[in-house]
Amino acid sequence: PPEQAARMKKLQEQEKRQKVEFRKRMEQEVSQFIQATGEPRRRFQPMNKIERSILHDVAEVAGLTSFSFGDDEDSRYVMVFKKEFAPSDEELEAYRRGEEWDPARAEERRRLRELAAQQEEAELESGPAPPGPPNDYKDKYRHLIGSDAAKAAARTMEANKAYGCVPVANKRDTRSIEEAMNEIRAKKRLRQAEDE
């Protein structure tokens, strides 16, 4: 029916208008964000997939980095970062877990990790540790799996040349099918002649 088609067209035009308006609004917000000096990142309110894709596009055009966070469709939101404040993997992981990113806390964690690594290194240099009960399953089964089994396995991962298509070089019989068939027929004829 024509009235339904007209209604559909009107709806589509309305949607298109809304998208254009939304894009304009996002462009304004993003340019405000760029001009805001003390703001390295901005979190936008949750929005639907189409709105998020528009915002990602606006951010990309503006030369910003953007990511979506949040598990379910209703609560997914976009965060926009200025290029010089692009997030580290650690920062992204925090947002993915739904936590606030605290650079001071992250720095503290990084220092603790470094310290632990230094201590471990010092222990390694001071000689073997006294034999004690193994507490890590890898230590427990080291005599079975070795310490570099995975590395060795990774190294031996090569394409199995015997699998799949056989390269001509590997074919013992280089005759064509016709030649092979003719040879078989000839042998058959020979045998029949001998039998007679």
UniProtKB/TrEMBL annotation:
PROSITE patterns in UniProt: R3H
Domain of life: Eukaryota
InterPro entries assigned to the protein according to its UniProt record, in alphabetical order: R3H_dom, R3H_dom_sf, R3H_sperm-antigen, SPAG7
Gene Ontology molecular function: nucleic acid binding
Biased composition (Basic and acidic residues): 99-114
Ranges for region Disordered: 99-140
Coiled-coil stretches: none
Pfam families membership: R3H
Domain R3H per the UniProt entry, residue ranges: 20-83
Protein name: SPAG7 protein
Organism: Oxylabes madagascariensis
